[in-house]
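chain below, 231 aa
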Amino acid sequence: MLFSGLAILVSSLSVAAQDYGGYGGGGGSTPTTTPSSAAVAAPSAPANDATHFNVNVAPGGVFKFDPAEITAPVNSTVTFWFPNTPQVPHSVTQSSFDAPCTHLAASANTSEGFDSGFTVAKQFSIVITDASKPIWFHCKQFQHCGMGMVGSINAPQNGTTTFAAYLAAASKIGLSEPQVRSLDRVKLASKFLPSRKPTPEQSPAASTPSPPVLQLRQRVVLRPPHHPARG
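prediction:
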């Protein structure tokens, strides 16, 4: 399985945990939601240690993951730090090497890939349970993947499936990347579009029915002009 070597944790102040069980290679795991300092104006990833690797998402407004290439051992955690940019939210979405800008769909041999959804000022973490299988990911925001906003975990250092080859494949797609239509976009649009309520004049209940229109028809009879008799 391409992504069996991970479990997923979601950390935020307001987001409910989603069930990503089954990514741990059969054992599965349920994500946890814990209080976090991620909802600050510009969250920044702390320094790495031997078991925890941090990734800045779109640092400084640049559409990239930093670092984009990660080598993480078994039982280590990789945490993605999302900026507070509600106008341009980002995601970390699992894909495959062959389709770098497409969410990894479930198949007979694999489960559906992980997806943080469009995220602002929060943290999204995965736990590595099998370091022998590479993990490919991208931002699903329209055209971001084609602009190079992709990354990998435990990608081969040599051969034809390196991170450099994955990045090249995503960049080749470029601005022709298909737009993703998802529930996330609907929620995002409803969040930032002002709601409009009908005014009393516009409300059907307050409207006054119009009187019936009477059509009057007038019959006009044309007569020849009258000439007085001559003597």
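The first strand starts at residue 6 and ends at 11. Confidence is low (pLDDT under 50) at residues 11-41, 185-199.
thats it, cya
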